Amino acid sequence: xxxxxxxxxxxxxxxxxxxxxxxxxxxxxxxxxxxxxxxxxxxxxxxxxxxxxxxxxxxxxxxxxxxxxxxxxxxxxxxxxxxxxxxxxxxxxxxxxxxxxxxxxxxxxxxxxxxxxxxxxxxxxxxxxxxxxxxxxxxxxxxxxxxxxxxxxxxxxxxxxxxxxxxxxxxxxxxxxxxxxxxxxxxxxxxxxxxxxxxxxxxxxxxxxxxxxxxxxxxxxxxxxxxxxxxxxxxxxxxxxxxxxxxxxxxxxxxxxxxxxxxxxxxxxxxxxxxxxxxxxxxxxxxxxxxxxxxxxxxxxxxxxxxxxxxxxxxxxxxxxxxxxxxxxxxxxxxxxxxxxxxxxxxxxxxxxxxxxxxxxxxxxxxxxxxxxxxxxxxxxxxxxxxxxxxxxxxxxxxxxxxxxxxxxxxxxxxxxxxxxxxxxxxxxxxxxxxxx
Length: 437
Hints:
Oligomer: single chain
Helix content: 40-55%
Low-confidence stretches: 1-5, 260-271
CATH architecture of the largest domain: 3-Layer(aba) Sandwich
C-alpha cells in the first residue's frame, strides 16, 4: 500500500482476489475492482452475500492482501503518513473478559498512548456514542445494540480518517438497527466525529439509500462493481418520500436483471453462478418457498408482486428475499422481471394442490431444473442404491469454496427429502433410494 497526494482518500485500482480450493484450484472472488473514496462522503458497497464486498473492505483495512492490484491512501497533510482507517465489524468482535472501557482503550493501548490520556479519550468516545454509565460493564451484560456501540466507540477513539463498516447493523433487531443508524447519521451530519469519510458494506437496499451519498452495486461470482448510484436526497431522509421509494425500486430492478449476455441456465450476476451440477445454491427451506408462493398468490398480490413491497409486507431483508425469489425462478415456479416477481402456472397449481400433489410437482421441477439433484438421482439405481455424499462434495469443491459446496449440498438434500426423490443418511454420509420418486 502506497500513499497518494491528491484529494482522494483511497484509490483502489484493478484489485483481484483469489481464494484457494481443496482441489488446488483458485476461486476468483473479486475481479478488476476500481474504487475511489473522496473526502466528506458515505459510500455503500451493496450486493448479495458472497459478492466479495467484505473481502474488498478487509483489503482496504489491511487485514488481507489482495492477489493483485493496488490500494493507495492519501497522505496526512502534517505527518505525510498515509491516512488512517478503523473498522466496525458485524459480529461486534469485543473481548468478553474486558469491560466496556477496556475494550474501547485497546486500540489506544496498541498505539502506546499514556494511560491517563487513554482513559480520557475512551470515556469521551463512550459518552459520544451514548453508553455513558456502562464503562465498567462486560459485553455479556449488554444488549446487541449496546455491544455494537462499544465496537463503534473503539473504532472512533483512535481518530481514524476513514471509518470502515462491515454490515454493522445486520446482527441487530430492526428497531435497534434503526436507532443506531439514526444516531450515527446524526453524529456524522453534526460533525461530531473526526472521521472524514465512511465506507460501509451492506446488502440492505433501504439502508444504503438511507445513509449513503454514493452506492456501488456489486455483481457476484466474481465480485465486480456494475453500477454507481448517486443519492442526491437531503438528510435526514424519509423512507416514504416518493423519490426515496423510486430509488429503492430502481435498485431492486437493477439487482434482479441478468448480466448482459448471460446465457439461459447461467446467472453471472445472480445467486446461482456456475453451470450444471457446479451451480451454487442458497439455503432456502421448502416451507419458505411454499410460503412465498402462497403469499404472492393471495391478496393483495394475486400472482404478481413488487419486490420492495413484498419485502416490506413479509419483513424480508432484500438479500434474503432475492435468495427465495431466485430459487423459485430457477425451479420455474416464478419469473423475475423489472423488480417484480410473477408466479408461473406451475406455482399456481402448487398453491392450489393437496400435500401429495405438491410433493409430486416439486419433485418434477427439482429433477428438471436443478442439475445436482438430477445427477444424484441418476447415479442411484436399483443395482447401486447408495452414493457417497463425500464424493459429490469433493466434485463441488473443484469449482466452489467448501462453504458454498456444503451449503449447496444441504439445500439439495432438504429439497430432495421433501420431494421424496432420494434420501440422505447423515451418519454414513450416503445418498440412498429409501424414498424413490
